[in-house]
Amino acid sequence: MQVGCFFYSAEKIVVNYVLVAHNKTRNQSEKSEKVLQARKTKVTWSAAQWQQYESRGVQLDQYAVFENTDQTVAWYGFGAVATYTPSSPAAFTAVAAWVKQLRQQLASTVSSQDIAILGGFAFSTPGATQHNGWGALANGYFMLPRFLVKRSGGQTELIELSAAAFASADLLADFEQFLPAIVQPGVEVDLLQQVEDAASWQQAVQQVVTRLQTDAYLQKVVLARTLMVTAAQPFSVTQLLLALRQVHTQVYHLVLKVADQLFISATPERLVAVQGQHLATAAVAGTTARGVDAATDAALGAALLKDQKNRAEQQIVVTAIQQRLQNLTTELVLPARPQLLKSQQVQHLYTPITAKLQPAADLFTAVAALHPTPALGGQPAALALPLIQQLEPEYRGLFGAPFGYATLAGDGEFAVAIRSMLVQQQQAFLFAGAGIVAASKPAAEVRETTLKFQPMLQLLRGVDHAK
């Protein structure tokens, strides 16, 4: 974090609005008698101060992070004044309605750009059965934070939301009081066991290849697999987040903690960003490793750009995005050839796409139109998704699904939650997927997914355990 010392701005904004009480059982929102106040102040913190706040914040029952690829836009949620648990995975309309209701209940004297929900949807396939390990996150989870830290345009703001009178006139004092006490990290413990399904998954890939070679309408199927890692003691959430930023740069950092469940993603892939009527998305597909030196890295990237199988796979994604945005946007712009998108361990084929939203479209209609892209689902989706459900033994949950933030003004950004894992105490479930086309080689796809496990394995191997 590039931050300095703390100060208050002269201005404090205090507003009242009606708190939405969320019925988690029936997944409906209704007006409450409670009045929610909000106030904010500009702040700067030293890196040590911020690390301390985050170390305390991750001990709360709800904590969320969204950091974009260059960390110029970031949101952090500490606790929650309201939550929304969808009744089904792809509940885009329901979440959009919840945000709209919050916006309508917000007094006009506060900028709705300063308040955002954080969270993610779940990946849905027809007839999918939930994996018990996902618990409260099985259908996705969104929160309106009790305290928000917003960083944008080189400025950081602390926003407090309260359903009662503020505890004091001092916003920072309220924040300090709200956070749990500091807990020192425990002793490092080696990973004890890794369990994966490589052999059976390779057989599933072969089944998909056979189907692709015999079905003229099916172009691509994305199959995911899971790696389970066990340690002797619970993983330290604090150390995982520190390692996330140290090890994985130039990617999105996505975090959602609910009780003892922690979801982490270091994804390079944007699903969609909306600011006003401006929309930005990207087609990402095709993968190769990074080189040990600049020359090797450049050679690997050049080979990826020339590889017919990977170029064809990525073009499927580009074409699908163009088709899905056709009725939602105008002025769609994209380069004729893909570029390289590089993260710490891998590089991908990448095509940035921009467009102007139609007046009736918004962030959530764009999310609904784009998810799942062929990079995570396949093409056409109507044929690929049932095949995924048939051949994948595990429920995807938040893996590969839209994760991000939405302001009450309607702007926001969602990334595709790949390079991710679900951590529960001393167990971690890592997820990786591969795009299968007719020319795919099952053994090569196993190697590719093994490579994609490395970002999260690197976090687990490089951190202490037990908060």
What's this, in brief?
With 467 residues, the protein is an alpha+beta fold. It has 10 helices and 21 strands.
* Largest sheet features: 21 strands, antiparallel
Shape descriptor reads globular
Number of strands: 21
Assign the structural class, choosing from mainly alpha, mainly beta, alpha/beta, alpha+beta, or little secondary structure: alpha+beta
Mean pLDDT: 85
Q: In percent, how helical is the residue content? A: 25-40%
Assigned CATH class of the largest domain: Alpha Beta
CATH superfamily of the largest domain: Anthranilate synthase
Q: Can you give a write-up of this model?
A:
- By secondary structure, this protein is α+β, with helices and mostly antiparallel strands.
- The chain folds into two domains: 15-178, no CATH class; 192-236 and 269-461, Anthranilate synthase.
- 28% of the residues lie in helices and 36% in strands.
- The chain has helices at 47-57, 92-105, 171-178, 198-214, 237-247, 294-306, 308-325, 363-370, 381-391, 442-461, and strands spanning 15-23, 28-43, 62-67, 73-84, 116-121, 140-152, 155-162, 191-196, 220-231, 252-258, 261-267, 270-275, 278-289, 329-333, 339-342, 346-357, 378-379, 402-407, 412-416, 420-424, 427-436.
- It has a 21-stranded antiparallel β-sheet that branches.
- Strand 20 (420-424) and strand 21 (427-436) form a beta hairpin.
- Helix 2 (92-105) runs antiparallel to helix 8, helix 4 (198-214) packs across helix 10 (442-461) and helix 5 (237-247) crosses helix 10.
- The longest helix is centred in the C-terminal third of the chain and has 20 residues, at 442-461.
- The two termini are 22 Å apart.
